[in-house]
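Listing S7. Sequence submitted for prediction.
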Amino acid sequence: MQRFFDLRGRCRAILGSVTSLEDLVRLRRARDMMDRDYAQPLDVPALAAAALMSAGHFSRSFRAAYGETPYSYLMTRRVERAKALLRRGDLSVTDVCFAVGCTSLGSFSSRFTELVGESPSAYRARPHEAGAAIPACVAKIHTRPVRNGEAGSREVS
């Protein structure tokens, strides 16, 4: 029962910090765009235009609603897709970097290491056959990158 009230309070906090339900719909449109077009060169002004907001208002509202900046969300999605490509093993780390929309191998490797806890080349080199029998929809949940140096500390329930 306590969990229900925590979620209700969290929803109130989100709705209180975002100006309206219409803003949430617009933010979701931009987030869907990041999920769909992660490999394209996306920046805050383009995402704000998709959400019909100014860049500053979009950034503040996105962070209030989702708990992270638009750039952090986009990079997390890119790393998530990169992990899938690296598990296949047929592309080099450089090819994966550019395939997911990153333009700098160094920045990609740094962010990947921060979120995953190991470098892209180390992730690619280790065996991934143990997860082959797991359905992709389940594997996606358990292999999703986590934010802020929390790699390796996630509890599986």
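Caption to Listing S7: primary sequence and predicted structure tokens for the chain studied. The radius of gyration is 17 Å. The chain has a mean pLDDT of 81.
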